[in-house]
Specification:
By secondary structure, the protein is an alpha/beta fold. Helices cover about 35% and strands about 15% of the residues. About 40% of the residues are buried. One of its GO terms (molecular function) is phosphatase activity.
Length: about 240
């Protein structure tokens, strides 16, 4: 059973302190997905891993294979779930799927059978992404889901995971938006996306009750032996 001792605040910030009363969260973005401008809005929600993404997943799974992992949680979207399965296999585990870890949908109210990139004028697409990069806010996407509801969903789900795994290390395979929601909350950032999270990067936090402390962010050193660039569709 997880240790139920109340954590000292100082231990949240100490990466070498025992996990007494703490949960260590290892947040992993999924491997690169197979995206193209021809995909409809509905198809962009759950694309499979690309060939590069599969290689990234093998690399991060191998990296974590020597770490103690007590549980693996995953978004239900297949790029995240396939990432979670590869990591969990090394530890004799199965990923626990949680709907609350599903990615933010920037095209939620756009016609599902149409491609935003082929339907909207190039100037409008450019403006949307330019404003998003400049402001780091989801408000730039006119067809997106409610960002406040998204953040509340993610933080609520992560809170349940922390409470269930005090004294343990948990891997969560999910998405850039999900990881950014957790980081923004922990860092008291006003941005929706304070960090450009790379595929299969590792971010580590410690948590107890509502407290969170960031240990590391966006470590993707395990892909540097074979990846030298990233496409604009896959940032």
């Amino acid at each position: 059973m997880p240790n139920q001792t109340r954590a000292r605040s100082i231990d949240l910030d100490n990466p070498f302190a025992p996990l007494d009363g703490l949960c260590e969260l290892v947040l992993i973005r999924h491997g690169e997905q197979a995206l193209s401008k021809e995909l409809s809005a509905a198809q962009t929600v759950d694309p499979p891993l690309s060939e590069l993404g599969q290689r990234q997943v093998r690399a991060v799974a191998q990296r974590l294979s020597t770490h103690a992992v007590d549980a693996v949680y995953s978004s239900p979207l297949r790029r995240a779930l396939d990432t979670g399965r590869a990591i969990a296999e090394h530890h004799g585990l199965e990923p626990v799927v949680r709907e609350g870890l599903t990615e933010y949908e920037p095209w939620q109210s756009f016609p599902a059978d149409q491609s935003p990139f082929e339907t909207l004028p190039h100037e409008e697409i450019s403006r949307i992404f330019r404003d998003h990069i400049r402001t780091r806010k989801y408000e730039a996407f006119p067809y997106a889901e409610d960002p406040v509801a998204f953040r509340e969903r993610v933080l609520g789900e992560v809170g349940l995971i922390v409470d269930a795994h005090l004294g343990q290390r948990v891997v969560i395979t999910c998405h850039s938006g999900v990881i950014n929601a957790v980081l923004a909350d922990a860092l008291a950032s006003g941005f929706d996306m304070p960090v450009r999270v790379h595929h299969t990067s590792v971010s580590v936090l410690r948590g107890a009750d509502t407290r969170r402390a960031v240990q590391s962010i966006n470590d993707f050193g395990h892909v540097l032996d074979f990846q030298t660039s990233v496409g604009a569709m896959n940032l």
